[in-house]
Amino acid sequence: AAMAAERALAMATCTAPVNIAVIKYWGKRDTDLILPINSSLSVTLHQDQLKTTTTAAASRDFTEDRLWLNGKEADVGHPRVQACLREVRRLARKRRGGGEDAAALSLSYKIHIASENNFPTAAGLASSAAGYACLVSALARLYGLEEELSEVARRGSGSACRSMFGGFVQWQRGERPDGTDSLALQVAPETHWPELRVLVLVVSGEKKPVGSTAGMQTSVETSPLLKHRAEVVVPERLAQMMQHIRDRDFEGFGQLAMRDSNQFHATCLDTFPPIFYLTDVSRHIIALAHRYNAHHGHTKVAYSFDAGPNAVIFALADTVAEFVEVVKRSFPPATNGDQFVRGLPVGSAALSPELAAAVLTEPVPGAVQYILHTKPGPGPQLVDDPSQHLLGPDGLPRSRA
Ligand code: DP6
């Protein structure tokens, strides 16, 4: 019996990506299970630029469940954190089928979780999707689960289920009331479209507006446009978007991404009282993208905005340098000019006088804080190197250098 002693401390660390929807999720039919009123489709962004890292540990010696976010202790009792924990433990119990596996981690042990982002949380870049995808991935590793867990990540945040895969990902709304068919599916891996690039234009300090959870609930209750969108528009667009991705048709992909972002923000205006996520700077970027495309005579850049003012721009690699120059000239950096462009390297480009005359207007200095250059990337990753754990051997956060 002594030989069958359960392990005293176990630890697992994973990383998970951010995703940006090109067919937006907005509205739930079940707020507890997080079941959406429409399917959605997103691009997973590369973790070299944006990622969450989470360590989950379980030990016989822990006296309570605890959680740290970016080094600060947070409320582990949060209902969505609890829903993820409960679901992972339920699956682990089911897997063991009641039989005691001596090598398995005891499900009665308390757990410690530490999570941090490699990007400033304050920048307003969607962090809950990466955060919950990472939490579920780390817990699954800890308990030795191997099944697909987008259904569990969905319980943390709807958009989190799409961060369980790399590349191009669909969250199918499903039909069942219990949500067992509301899960994410990979449409194509990140290698499918090697030329696709993403620029995140981080817009300067705005107060945080109404959060997406509360916002979308008000929209469901009051917006007839949202109802029409979910019933009629999205099913058509989803099929079209899948085809554009399969064909690597940037023109089709970009136009539809812009239209869908615009319709999402139209449903926000149609909500009563209305919700405004776009700012003057966001609208300035929209107009700039359209002037740029009009000058070239086709869609070379496409914007998308979530529940905040930051712009995500899609472009092919051969367009990035020129468009970044356009952004620099339109929104010259206030300070820190050398850190204005971050992430993947961006070549230099000179703007032709014709382009400058057609596209540029009066510059707005400081309106864009910085540009992050990234591309589609893979889904959650296991971190093998034990020195990368965010928790030490005592189960407490390591002091960060
Ligand atoms: C505008 O996934 O953050 O980014 O399910 O309530 O946690 P909850 O909402 P969340 O909503 C994301 C909305 C969006 C569009 C999208 O990502 O599809």
TrEMBL record:
The keyword ATP-binding applies. It holds the Pfam family MVD-like_N. The keyword Zinc does not apply. It catalyses: (R)-5-diphosphomevalonate + ATP = isopentenyl diphosphate + ADP + phosphate + CO2. GO terms for cellular component: cytosol. Its EC number is 4.1.1.33. Residues 375-401 are annotated as: Disordered. Residues 198-382 form the Mvd1 C-terminal domain. It comes from the Eukaryota. One of its GO terms (molecular function) is ATP binding. GO terms for biological process: cholesterol biosynthetic process; isopentenyl diphosphate biosynthetic process, mevalonate pathway. Catalyzes the ATP dependent decarboxylation of (R)-5-diphosphomevalonate to form isopentenyl diphosphate (IPP). Functions in the mevalonate (MVA) pathway leading to isopentenyl diphosphate (IPP), a key precursor for the biosynthesis of isoprenoids and sterol synthesis. This is Diphosphomevalonate decarboxylase. The lineage of its organism: Eukaryota, Metazoa, Chordata, Craniata, Vertebrata.
